[in-house]
Amino acid sequence: NKVVNKYIDQGVAELVPGVLFVDEVHMLDIECFTYLHRALESPLAPIVIFATNRGRCLIRIHVAQTAFKLRRVYTS
């Protein structure tokens, strides 16, 4: 973001707001949602539309292995 802001301030670049359309969003795992959440907190974030043909479903289960134990993260 620092580089983009620098280019905008110098007049080299221009910020054009847009729309990001994500289809089949039920196929994303928790890492994708985490990345999108961080990206949406940015002042440069686009409008995001999530689409799916599912009613209600669980987000894919992520299993993280650490040196000490196996940890499961469930999200719905």
What does this 3D model show about the protein?
The strands form 2 sheets. Strands 1-2 form a two-stranded parallel ribbon. The protein has a two-stranded antiparallel ribbon with strand order 3-4. The chain is an alpha+beta fold. It has one domain (14-73). It has 2 helices and 4 strands; from the N terminus they run αβαβββ. Residues 65-76 have low confidence and may be disordered. It catalyses: ATP + H2O = ADP + phosphate + H(+). Residues 1-62 form the TIP49 P-loop domain. Belongs to the RuvB family.
Provide tags for this entry.
hydrolase activity, elongated, 76 residues, alpha+beta, transcription regulation, P-loop_NTPase, disordered C terminus, 2 helices, RuvB-like helicase, nucleotide-binding, 21% strand, two-stranded antiparallel sheet, two-stranded parallel ribbon
Widest sheet, order of strands: 1-2
State the shape. elongated
How is the main sheet built? 2 strands, parallel
Number of domains: 1
> What's the helix-strand series?
HEHEEE
Q: What's this entry about, in short?
A:
The protein has 76 residues and is of the alpha+beta class.
How are the elements arranged and paired?
Layout: H1 2-10, E1 19-22, H2 30-40, E2 47-50, E3 62-65, E4 70-73
Parallel strand pairs: 1-2
Antiparallel strand pairs: 3-4
GO molecular function: ATP binding; DNA helicase activity; hydrolase activity
Keywords: ATP-binding, Helicase, Hydrolase, Nucleotide-binding, Nucleus, Transcription, Transcription regulation
EC number: 3.6.4.12
